[in-house]
Design goal:
14 helices; 358 residues; Ribonucleotide Reductase, subunit A; 4 strands; two-stranded antiparallel ribbon; mainly alpha
Length: 358
């Protein structure tokens, strides 16, 4: 586990959440006027069907801890190693920050648009992400490490993204979030003896929220096909690679977490990539060739560079800063090499909506 600090106190947890670097979840803002002009009339029938699902709110009573939660937590915790606990806490903080990031963005869009379709969607999505973040925060509070969400909103840096970047990045983050959670859930469904925290019992219905969020952005992009052609294909390629590479490097910084679930980090990541590739056929005309030997070697090289960067960051002085810059440049060059690898073309599904069957 390569982390600059362990999480031992509530200050450590809040400090980790507020960090802004290439691997940490970010907070975003965007052009609200442009979001207000989005038109979904070309996919009205599918759009209304998804809105009815949101309205039905099948998870309204899901995010409640049952009577067995505390007992299962106490029994599991007795078997944790210190290293597993740290990776689990890092997973919680990272996941909470990501969920809360979505909540803030969606809520800000909701407040700043008049478009009834977009306002309705953002209201539903902010509702869901708020529940998710709050549920994770309850598990952090079990260790007296709860995140001050109000303070986090005020102090974490915000990144401006054009609306189309929001579309690509949010669609992918929601879909890969589904793929991650459902893969973990299915593994622990097969091997309940490896479920070392009760929160994983909630993952199936939880990740269906993430899946539905992605469906909404897929519909917006299909209703605006210019987002899926021409030079925008380069942006799609960029965001696919950025999301996959970030996940791969981040996951290989906490291998003990996956090992405790009976998962190998590399095999787990490629399973998630395959599910995400299968899903994105609904909207992206291209997919990364995740089986290309140069792609796999390149991601592994990024992990090696990240480890070298962490080692340099742990040191002090001018030479340490020079080393950090050098490793940052190496990572950029490696990312560029991955970016120019061949991609696969794919025909979009006739209908956008794709039911979660994984």
């Amino acid at each position: 586990m390569n982390m600059s600090t362990t999480i031992e106190s509530v200050d450590d947890a809040n400090s980790r959440a507020v960090q802004s670097h290439v691997l940490s979840p970010r907070f975003y803002t965007t052009d609200f006027a442009a979001m207000d002009r989005i038109d979904v009339s070309a996919v009205r029938e599918e759009w209304d069907a998804v809105m009815q699902e949101y309205e039905g709110d099948n998870n309204h009573d899901h995010f409640q801890r049952d009577a067995e939660f505390a007992q299962e937590l106490a029994q599991s915790q007795a078997q944790w190693t210190p290293e597993l606990k740290q990776e689990l806490l890092d997973f919680f903080v990272s996941s909470l920050t990501s969920e809360f990031s979505g909540c803030i963005l969606y809520n800000e869009i909701r407040k700043n648009v008049n478009n009834p379709d977009i306002k309705q969607l953002m209201t539903f999505m902010a509702r869901d992400e708020s529940r998710h973040a709050g549920f994770i925060n309850q598990s952090l509070r079990d260790f007296n490490l709860g995140i001050d969400l109000g303070q986090l909103k005020r102090t974490k840096a915000y990144t401006y993204f054009k609306p189309k970047y929001i579309m690509y990045a949010t669609y992918l983050s929601e879909k890969i979030g589904y793929a991650r959670y459902i893969t973990i859930y299915r593994q622990l469904e097969r091997h309940p003896e490896l479920r070392f925290h009760p929160i994983f019992r909630w993952f199936e219905r939880w990740c269906n929220d993430e899946y539905r969020h992605g469906e909404s952005f897929a519909l917006i992009m299909r209703a605006n096909p210019h987002l899926l052609s021409g030079l925008n294909l380069l942006w799609i390629r960029f965001f696919l690679l950025a999301v996959y590479a970030t996940m791969y490097v981040r996951d290989h910084r906490r291998p003990i977490l996956h090992h405790a679930m009976g998962l190998d980090s590399t095999q787990y990541d490629y399973k998630v990539f395959q599910i995400t590739n299968d899903i994105t056929r609904q909207v992206f005309p291209i997919a990364l060739d995740i089986d290309h030997p140069a792609f796999r070697a390149g991601l592994s090289h990024l992990v090696t560079i990240a480890e070298a960067f962490d080692q340099a960051k742990a040191k002090k002085g001018l030479w340490a800063r020079v080393q950090q810059g050098w490793h940052g440049a190496r990572a950029a060059v490696q990312f560029a090499r991955l970016f120019v690898l061949p991609v696969k073309s794919q025909t979009l599904n006739a209908k956008t909506i794709l039911r979660p069957t994984w």
